[in-house]
Write a structure and sequence with these properties.
alpha+beta; 2 domains; five-stranded mixed sheet; four-stranded mixed sheet; 9 strands; about 35% helix
Length: about 180
């Protein structure tokens, strides 16, 4: 039977003899019909199956317990948490200005290329000030050049959109 160790910041569950204070519990598990039985009966069932009795939800009425291998359940929870952590890549942001030089624009495009190749999305933000706002279409030249520089590795999620004094576009990996 399992000892209840808090490994890998897993949630803390009461297991086997740690479960007390209930007359009846709702039992669940793989291949077990969900039903309300006494706590002593649930312990006997788990023992006869050579598995652990794990308290899943103490707040419900009656409390919910599961018959399963505690180590296997912790392993599955850890595996699911790790998978969820890997799938979320951050959104990287690149700031552009209207009067950016060609060399600076190329440097920012190279940095964005690295981010995109590593699986992140890139948010390119062009900030306009003063008279640049009056000539909005001419001012968008640098963000359009930026998109063209990255067309071999990235595609825009949508057309560049205006948001006050900014124009924003999000680029994602091609394919």
């Amino acid at each position: 039977m399992a000892k209840n160790k808090n490994v890998f910041n897993a949630p803390r569950f009461r297991v086997n003899d740690e479960i007390y204070g209930y007359k009846d519990v709702r039992i669940v598990g793989e291949g077990i019909e969900s039903k309300v039985i006494s706590l002593a009966e649930a312990r006997k069932m788990a023992e006869s199956m050579e598995l652990d009795l794990i308290e899943i939800n103490p707040n419900s009425s009656p409390a919910i317990v599961r018959i399963a291998s505690y180590e296997k359940m912790l392993y599955e929870l850890k595996k699911a948490a790790k998978k969820n952590k890997q799938t979320s890549k951050p959104l990287k942001e690149i700031q552009l200005s209207v009067n950016i030089t060609d060399h600076d624009l190329q440097t920012k495009a190279n940095n964005a290329r690295k981010f995109i190749e590593n699986g992140s999305k890139v948010k390119a933000t062009l900030t306009m000030k003063g008279r640049e706002l009056l000539r909005r279409e001419d001012s968008k030249r640098s963000i359009l050049e930026f998109i063209v520089m990255l067309e071999d590795v990235a595609t825009p999620e949508s057309q560049p959109r205006d948001d006050g004094n900014k124009t924003i576009v999000i680029l994602k990996k091609k394919g």
